[in-house]
Each structure stands twice: as structure tokens, then as C-alpha cells.
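chain below, 386 aa
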Amino acid sequence: MRTFISPVKIITGVGSLSRLPDEIKAFNATRVMIFADPGVLKAGILDSLTRILNGINLDYTIYSEIQPEPPLPKGDQAVAALRDSQAELVIGIGGGSCLDITKAAAVLCKNDGTIADYLNLTGTKELTDKGIPKILIPTTSGTGAEVTDIAVFSLKATKDVLTHPYLLADTAIVDPELTYSLPPKITAATGIDALTHAVEAFISVNASPLTDLLSLEAIRKISSSVRTAVWHGANRAARSEMSYGSLLAGLSFYNAGVSGVHALAYPLGGHFKISHGESNAVLLPYVFDFIWPACLDKMQMIAEALGVPTVGLTKGKVALATVACFQEMVRDVGLSLSLQDYGIRREDIELLAKDAIKQTRLLDRSPMPYTLNDVTRIYMNAWEKN
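prediction:
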């Protein structure tokens, strides 16, 4: 038996941001706070949103003290700002970190304590109040944060999450137009992040027929369009495919979960401040090179969705060809396949492995169990690659 959960409402399509006034009216909100990351301000994307709000004479304030891979103090600062604003509705527009902070603030503003009190691994409190309504609007095609109840925060050595159904968006607006100005590197990192969500959800022990359908379609859309979106960003068809692919992957991984790639990626972000998308990209082929013997049939289906030739090949060779396809895709979008390129030394591997093996929430979803030696070997394979 499986349960499928999603936000109350998802609005998609080119120009869907224009639906924002109707959504605000549905919440009867007269005072709104907007969370927007600095990149959204710099790119002028926020102007599109504020023009809409000015057109309906809405009282709003803008909060932009947001950074990628946010540490706990940044999250608590956002919570305090939302509490002080007395807003009745919060709108998050930006990348995954911005949306994560928006979700956390919308809920925590009506609960006691700090974010640390509610963290998955170490928190001691339970959320008791749903908070205020939230509308989430992604400006990248990768994180899927607009359709999950997860908010990720950086700790000194690794990452931890808030996760509770209260964090789900009341409305998610996914407008491909908002991704048109993304630079190549961010397009690449978020695109491979979305692919990772899709493939990890597909092989998860918690996968269902519904999440499998979403995952496979996400893999098809992302793999066929990510190179074009990275190197020819003005191609609107590719941007739309990436936007939809990311949304489908988000819905899938929220319900089925991600596993080994993300578990090993968290310490890279925690210790070395490598972006989440790049952390996933550099590990994706090596993790799947380890787990493929435990999911041969699904590797075959992933290969077909990727367009990997499979005729006449054994299941094992198909799996290896799929791993090679992951490597080629990461390389083609300009990202690294070597931990050494991120300044990681051989002597750092032990520390990374000890932190990654603690991510049991993620590793327990893998079709292949992990030992500390397994995790160490995967890191070493990614480190030795030149």
C-alpha cells in the first residue's frame, strides 16, 4: 500500500505567474511578505511579480536576506522577520534554498522555538500549528522544493532537514518563463539535481507505480533537454521541458524518496560548501555504479528512458551503459566528475564517509544496503577520477 501526497494546487505553464492575483484573493490576504533570493532581484525576475501585486493594490514587504545552502541562523532570521511582519500570506520566489526558507518560516512563525528544535536528526519538538498560507514559485528547474514538505539547512559538518506535511505549499506556480535567464552553470547543476531526484525515486524501495510513471517521464524530459537548456538557454522548448521534468521529479521523489546520492552529497555541502546540484552530479555515476546489481530491471527501464541502446545487451551491460550515460551527461553540461576538482583531499574521505553513513533516513530507501566501507569506496572512486 502506498500513499501519494502533493500540494493542494499546482499551476503550470508559460505565463502561469499571471494567476497569482486569483490565488492571493483565495486566501483573503491583505498583508503579504515576499521571500526572494538575491539572484531573483538581480535578474529582474521579481519585477514581474511586484507589477502584478501593485496592480491589485496589495500591501507587501520583500525579504531577500537569503543565501544558498542556508545555515540555521539564516533560517531563524527569516522566521523572526515573518513573525514581525504580521503577514497573512507568504510568497517564496527563487531557487530551492529560498523556497525551503519560505516553507520553514511560514510554519515556524506560528510555532515556538527555533528551526534546530524541529530538525529531523536532532530536534526534540513537534510542530503543532500549520502556520500561514504559502505560495511557492520556483525560478530554477531542479530542486522540486515547490512540491515537497522538506526544508534543508546546513550544519557545521553536514545537513539536516525539517520535514512535515505542514511545509507543503498551499499553491505552487511553475512558470517556465521564470527560468529563461538562468546562467549555464546553475541550469546544469539544477538540471542534474532534477535528474538525480527522478532516478533515485525510481529505484527507491518506497517507489510505487504512480511515482514510477512520474520518474520515467521526468527522466525522458530532462535527459533530452538539459544539454540544450544549458548551452542554448534561449531555447524555450528546452526550458519548458526542464521545468515540467523538474516538477514531475519533485512529485516523485517527495513520495518515494531519494537515497544514496543525496546521503553522500550532504557532507560535501556541509564541509566544503559545494552546491547541492554539483554535489549530486559528481556522485551520481559512482553511486549507481555501486547499486545497479540490486535493481537490474529498473536500470533497464532507466536506460530506455535515457535513450541508451539496449538491444542484445545483458542486464548487467545495460546497467553499466546507463552509468556511462550519467557520466557523459554530467560532463556534457560542464560539471565535474572528480572530487579533486572541488578541492577535496584523499585524507578528507574518511570524514565524509563517517558523516554520510549517518544519513539513515536516506540510505534506508536504497535497494542496496550501505556499509561504511561501501560509502568510503564510492567517495574514493569519485576522488580518483581525473
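The mean pLDDT is 94. The chain has 15 helices and eight strands.
thats it, cya
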